[in-house]
Automatic annotation (TrEMBL):
Keywords, in A-Z order: DNA-binding, Phosphoprotein, Transcription, Transcription regulation
InterPro entries documented for this protein: CheY-like_superfamily (IPR011006), NreC/VraR/RcsB-like_REC (IPR058245), Sig_transdc_resp-reg_C-effctor (IPR016032), Sig_transdc_resp-reg_receiver (IPR001789), Tscrpt_reg_LuxR_C (IPR000792), WalR-like (IPR039420)
Response regulatory domain sequence ranges: 2-122
Modification 4-aspartylphosphate occurs at: D52
Pfam families attached to this UniProt entry: GerE, Response_reg
SUPFAM superfamilies associated with the record: C-terminal effector domain of the bipartite response regulators, CheY-like
Keyword check for Ribosomal protein: no
SMART domains named among the record's database cross-references: HTH_LUXR, REC
Protein known as: Response regulator
Occurrences of domain HTH luxR-type (ranges): 144-215
Species of origin: Amycolatopsis pigmentata
PANTHER family (UniProt xref): TRANSCRIPTIONAL REGULATORY PROTEIN NARL-RELATED (PTHR43214:SF24), TWO-COMPONENT RESPONSE REGULATOR (PTHR43214)
Length: 220
């Protein structure tokens, strides 16, 4: 796995590099700003990019903008975005521009090495990984009059865990139910969100994207 890191905090950048290399992962570049990140993506053709949300010069959304641009240039690139705290609009913007091979984690999660590496590998393998705290805050702010309002409490729990990137077996373990029960809930979620079977769309990804888009419609 070839990885590019874009993080302006030099201590975290070096720490991530050492951690990943200790796991026998190939960090081909570690840079501190968005321009150098895009150049590294072009030069090294990485499999995965780990990108900070806020980077120089304005420390606002440079990382997200660069991540979206990197995906435009290399659609197969997996991107794991790191943020110091929950920024719902940025998370939604990233996922709306592409459904798979994407992750959004809080920086605190890096200290939980096993969870961080699991998210990294999940994203690299084509899945999604959204920090549970991000999902929880999105769920709190979801408008009750969206399609998500059709879901039962258990179905919302299942969709929340789907948004985190968990598979059916992991969801069943987390909720202490059978795999069959999870499968039944997911079928119901697809039906209530009007997601019929199709060869053109991954319904699991479509459900999570629907969740993210509507979770960002806050009551004012």
């Amino acid at each position: 796995m070839r990885i590019v890191i874009a993080e302006d905090d030099s201590l975290l950048r070096v720490g991530l590099t050492l951690l990943l290399r200790a796991e026998s992962l190939d960090v081909v570049a570690a840079v501190g700003n968005a321009d150098d990140f895009l150049a590294a993506v072009s030069d090294h053709a990485p499999d995965v990019a780990i990108v900070d949300v806020r980077m120089p010069p304005t420390h606002t959304d440079e990382g997200i903008v660069a991540a979206v641009e990197a995906r435009r240039r290399r659609p197969e690139l997996a991107v794991l975005v790191l943020s110091a705290y929950v920024e719902q609009a940025f998370a939604t913007e990233l996922f709306i521009h592409g459904g798979t091979r994407l992750g959004y984690l809080l920086k605190d999660r890096v200290g939980q090495v096993e969870e961080f590496l699991d998210a990294l590998h999940r994203v690299a393998a084509g899945g999604t990984a959204i920090d549970p705290e991000v999902v929880a805050q999105m769920l709190v702010h979801t408008r009750p009059d969206t399609c998500l309002g059709r879901l039962s409490a258990r179905e919302r729990e299942v969709l929340t865990l789907m948004a985190e990137g968990l598979g059916n077996g992991a969801i069943a373990e987390r909720l202490v139910v059978t795999d069959g029960a999870v499968h039944k809930h997911i079928r119901s979620i697809f039906a209530k969100l009007d997601l019929p079977p199709t060869d053109r769309t991954d319904r699991r990804v479509a459900a999570v994207l629907h969740y993210l888009k509507n979770a960002n419609n806050l009551d004012h």
